Amino acid sequence: RGQLYYAANDDSPDDSSRSSRHQKYRMKEQLLSALNDNRLVLFYQPIVNLKTNNISHCECLVRLLDSESQFIDPAQFLGIASESGLLPKLDYSVLEKAMRQQSLWEESGITTGLSINVTAPTLEQADFQQKFDELLQLTGANPHRLILEIVETDAISNLNITRNLLNHFKTVGTQIAFDDFGIGFTSFEYVRDLPVDFIKIDQSFIRFIHEREQDRVLVKSMVEMSHSLGKKVIVEGIENRAALAVVKEIGVEYVQGYHICRPMPISALDLSLHLRY
Ligand code: C2E
Ligand code: MG
Ligand code: MG
Ligand code: MG
């Protein structure tokens, strides 16, 4: 009966799953061609140090320039990249672009750092460390001005690999941030035992922190624990002054969010941004 009913309906699940399969297929084609034709573009979002109120580094956020010259957000293509095994290719492409940008800044005496998101399938590549070092050679980037952002749950999914890599990056001088921290139920034991430099608290805790006492209490204790383990804290998702005031009061030292600056193409980025309250 259900079958008959749906068959007569334009919006039947079969049709919609067929069209979503088709959409996925098209997005995969777009992603593949973007990887080949260099149509992945980096946007840059400032992260401000609250001690100086100046930009300490920018997060590189990838966009796909489609055939109609529209920028597509990563939410539209990261799932497909993951399913198709394309994450390492995408991550390497972003790494190389970021390193080239840092190298240009380095030549101009600009000390702003860059943080780059890397995913578990990339970390799990047997030659990731070697590729990273080769890209440094190729681009002339200064590893001390780079930070790798690893989603908390990706970092602990294979602890042996993570531990080896993080130790390598320690010796190279590249810093590590645990991204989207707090939603993965990771024990602080991992934070203690791994050579991580930054804890980046997930924006879901920050967005309404000025209105929700429970979020404030949670973030405050995450900040205190991070600090007592010698880690620096970044919060993302600062969308207004009230939230900024709360996290400052709690002792957070780095902030990122639309209230401070949106992700920007390099041409629109103003590195002299100085945060005023
Ligand atoms: P993420 O690494 O946690 O990056 C932060 C995301 O939050 C970015 O979205 C940023 O634009 C957004 N954001 C920043 N401030 C605010 C704010 O105040 N309010 C709100 N609502 N959002 C804010 P975006 O660029 O769409 O990226 C989404 C996710 O996609 C990233 O989350 C990251 O996991 C992934 N991603 C982005 N670029 C790359 C990349 O180059 N490589 C990899 N592997 N993943 C990436
Ligand atoms: Mg990130
Ligand atoms: Mg994040
Ligand atoms: Mg995220």
UniProtKB/TrEMBL annotation:
<feature type="domain" description="EAL">
    <location>
        <begin position="24"/>
        <end position="277"/>
    </location>
</feature>
<protein>
    <submittedName>
        <fullName>Cyclic di-GMP phosphodiesterase PdeR</fullName>
    </submittedName>
</protein>
